[in-house]
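User: Sequence in, structure out. Go.
Assistant: Echoing your sequence, followed by the C-alpha cells.
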Amino acid sequence: MGEKWLDLLRKLAPSTEHVAVLSNPVTSTASFGKLYFQSINAAAPRFGIKPFSLAIDNEADLKQRLSDLAREPNSGLIVLLDAFTYVHRDFIIDQAARHRIPTIYTISFFAEAGGLASYGVDLAAHFGQAATYVDRILRGARPADLPVQQPTKFKLVINVKTAKGLGITMPESLLVAADEVIE
C-alpha cells in the first residue's frame, strides 16, 4: 500500500520530496501505522521521497505541525486511518487545504468529505465479505476454523474540486483509473 500511496502522491504533485505520514501513536491501531510506515519507507527511495512519521494525538499539535510542514517546500502528507484521524477528519482535511498540502488518504470517505485523493480498501466490498462469515457461523462453523481473508477490492477516489483549489492539474491517467471522481 505504501508504494501505491507514494505513486499517487507523486502523480498529483510531481515535485514532492518529503512526505509526512500522519497517525495517532496511542490508539490500538498504532501497530498498523508502524507497518504502513515501514511499507512507505521501503518504497520511498524509488520515488526520491523522504518520509517521516507525524505521530499526533491532538488538534493543537496537528495544526502546528501541518503549518510547519507547509513551510517546507515540496511537502506532501499521507493520512493513515485510526480513531484520531477518523474523528478529526474534517479538521485534517481543512488544515491540509488551508496550508495547500497535497494529501493522500487511505479511505474513500476522506476524499468524499473534501480531501484531495484516497486509495484504500473498498469498505463496502470488505464488509460484504463479512456477511459470508456471519452466515457460516450461523450455520454452525466455528469462528476459529474460518480462514482469514485479505481485502480483494481497492478504491481510488479523486476530488477534482479540491485539486483545483490546490492548483493541481489532474493527470488524465488518474481520472481514467479512478473508481470515483468528485467534481
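User: And one key feature?
Assistant: The chain has one domain: 2-182.
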